[in-house]
Design goal:
The structure is a single chain. By secondary structure, the chain is of the alpha/beta class. The chain contains 7 helices and 12 strands. It has a 9-stranded mixed β-sheet, covered by helices on one side. It has a 3-stranded antiparallel β-sheet with strand order 4-8-7, covered by helices on one side. α1 packs across α2. The radius of gyration is 17 Å and the shape is globular. It starts with a strand and ends with a strand. It binds fructose -6-phosphate (F6R). The site of fructose -6-phosphate has 13 residues, from loops.
Length: 258
């Protein structure tokens, strides 16, 4: 796992946005895995601001998750989030943009359909992930199978509390979501995990330094050969190997086998 530690959250965001744009520059038909949440808002903002001259028309996207019970027009849905923060601002082809449906008649079938659609697209070239305070990626909550595929997931009270800011109260946050599984995410050819802020420090430590275990779903990524963990100083504050990092070009960098 490659780890990049930046002084500020903005630098970590800028690096992540540039890496996604670089991927699209290299391969116009890139298949992206996309996250939502607060961490990604400035990433999409930066992508919008620095995308001049780059076409997104052939890019294919698959979002990691969507709440169950919310239709695409619901302001709390991830469909709305993506339109608002990214899709409506660039020349994406709407036919290439995929999110799980939160209102399918059968959520389990919808999860299977979504998994097949990712496969039919040739798999994810690059997925950019946020990190839950409880170590979740997508909505894969602690206890999930590390071999899981896209599935219906019950959200923990902690996750519902963390996302209450988008709904008013935690009680208003949907109880279930459809999420790509840990293995679905793991199968991406490249992964960026972005975590900023001191409230993510414990999850970063568990993900990078802890044992691989279902209690921290993100720890499964330790076995991935092409994952970059992008952090600011605050998120890296509990990271054990931090002090051993060499300072390279203004940010600290360490590389495992990735
Ligand atoms: C949502 C997703 C989640 C978030 C995570 C962090 O699509 O994939 O795993 O990335 O909950 O959320 P924030 O950035 O709001 O702290």
């Amino acid at each position: 796992m490659k780890v990049l530690i930046f002084k500020t959250a903005q630098e970590a965001v800028d690096h992540s946005a540039a890496a996604v744009l670089e991927q699209i520059r290299e391969r116009a038909e890139t298949v992206l895995g996309l996250s939502t949440g607060g961490t990604m808002v400035p990433v999409y903002e930066k992508m919008r601001a620095t995308a001049a001259g780059l076409s997104f028309n052939k890019v294919v996207t698959f979002n990691l998750d969507e709440y169950l019970g919310l239709c695409p027009g619901d302001p709390g849905s991830y469909h709305s989030y993506m339109r608002h923060h990214l899709f409506d601002h660039l020349d994406f082809n709407p036919h290439n943009l995929h999110l799980p449906s939160g209102t399918a008649a059968c959520a389990t079938q919808e999860a299977e359909r979504y998994e097949m659609a990712i496969k039919a697209a040739g798999g994810l070239d690059l997925a950019i992930l946020g990190l839950g305070e409880n170590g979740h990626i997508g909505f894969n909550e602690p206890g999930v199978s590390l071999g899981s595929r896209t599935h219906v997931q019950a959200l923990t009270d902690q996750t519902r509390a963390a996302n209450a800011r988008y709904f008013g109260t935690s009680e208003q946050v949907p109880r279930f979501a459809i999420t790509m599984g840990v293995k679905t995410i793991f199968d991406a050819r490249k992964l960026i995990v972005l975590a900023t802020g001191a409230h993510k420090a414990a999850a970063v430590q568990a993900m990078r330094d802890g044992p691989v275990r279902t209690a921290c779903p993100a720890s499964a990524l330790q076995a991935h050969s092409q994952v970059t963990l992008v952090l600011d100083e605050a998120a890296a504050s509990l990271f054990e190997a931090r002090a051993a990092y060499a300072d390279i070009q203004g940010h600290k960098v360490a590389s495992g086998h990735g």
